[in-house]
């Protein structure tokens, strides 16, 4: 196991960020940074592709090629061709091997690393291919502003107002990050792990009356999705955090 710095992680994706729309490139750089802060390492495996590169990829697995098919899109029919899409993979702790295992928990926080990446991606306003109904593309992320590939081919691009809104979102998340020190984030992450462990033991059938308001505050702060089926220790922990004012500060991320 090696310990890579954020700069070392970022360098591994530099070549794949070339050709992306400048604002989309900033978003992907921010995604790498935010995932690293959570203990998850990622690399960008695919970025901008020319029409010819897209056609070559489309040909894989067709016309006698025995390799598996990897795309349904010909040149001009993928958002990669316009610089608004990228694919990612997890970078394992040897610093060299990549993984597409969506259940892997390399940072040992009881959460699948892939889901943590997707969570951060959506905070940045990215669309995830895993949410698509007809064809789930788990490594795929894009930001297309409602523009179809046909419109992209015709020359349409997002307005400056739309791009500015994306930059504002990135800056807003940066401000939120700065509200907690690195030590505070580490301490809170440790608490989150403790909560996960406690939640799995001695679950109560309903939220105790004395913990109801604390759970409401925690949900409002975005820390809890649901307060159901927790243990006594879980509700006690949430109540103590609430009494300490953690959920009222609005700085838990």
The radius of gyration computed from the alpha-carbon positions, rounded to a whole number of angstroms, is 21 Å
Q: Main sheet?
A: 5 strands, antiparallel
- Mean pLDDT, to the nearest integer, reads 86
Secondary structure tally: strands: 5
| Beginning-to-end CA distance, first to last residue | 28 Å
Number of helix segments?
A: 11
| Low-confidence parts | none
Percentage of residues in DSSP E strands: 5-15%
What would you note in describing this structure?
The protein has 11 helices and 5 strands; from the N terminus they run αααβαββαββαααααα. Helix 3 crosses helix 5, helix 8 runs antiparallel to helix 10 and helix 9 crosses helix 10. Strands 1, 2, 3, 4 and 5 form a 5-stranded antiparallel beta sheet that branches. The chain has 253 residues and is of the alpha+beta class. The model has no long low-confidence stretch (mean pLDDT 86).
């Amino acid at each position: 196991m090696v310990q890579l710095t954020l700069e070392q992680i970022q360098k591994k994706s530099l070549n794949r960020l070339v050709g992306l729309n400048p604002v989309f490139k900033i978003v992907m750089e921010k995604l790498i940074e935010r995932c690293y802060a959570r203990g998850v390492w990622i690399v960008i495996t695919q970025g901008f592709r020319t029409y010819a590169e897209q056609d070559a990829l489309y040909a894989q697995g067709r016309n006698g090629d025995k390799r598996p098919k990897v795309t349904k899109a010909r040149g001009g029919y993928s958002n990669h061709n316009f610089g608004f899409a990228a694919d990612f993979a997890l970078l394992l702790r040897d610093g060299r091997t990549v993984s597409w295992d969506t259940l892997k928990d390399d940072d040992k926080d009881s959460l699948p690393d892939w889901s943590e990446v997707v969570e951060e991606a959506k905070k940045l306003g990215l669309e995830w291919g895993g949410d698509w109904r007809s064809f789930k593309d788990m490594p795929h992320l894009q930001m297309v502003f409602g523009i179809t590939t046909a419109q992209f081919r015709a020359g349409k691009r997002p307005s400056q107002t739309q791009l500015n809104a994306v930059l504002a979102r990135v800056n807003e998340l940066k401000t939120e990050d700065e509200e907690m020190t690195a030590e505070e984030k580490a301490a809170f992450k440790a608490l989150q792990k403790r909560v996960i462990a406690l939640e799995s033991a001695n679950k109560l059938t309903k939220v105790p009356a004395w913990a109801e308001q604390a759970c409401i505050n925690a949900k409002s702060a975005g820390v809890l999705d649901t307060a159901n089926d927790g243990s006594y220790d879980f509700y006690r922990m949430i109540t103590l955090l609430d009494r300490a004012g953690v959920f009222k500060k609005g700085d838990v991320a």
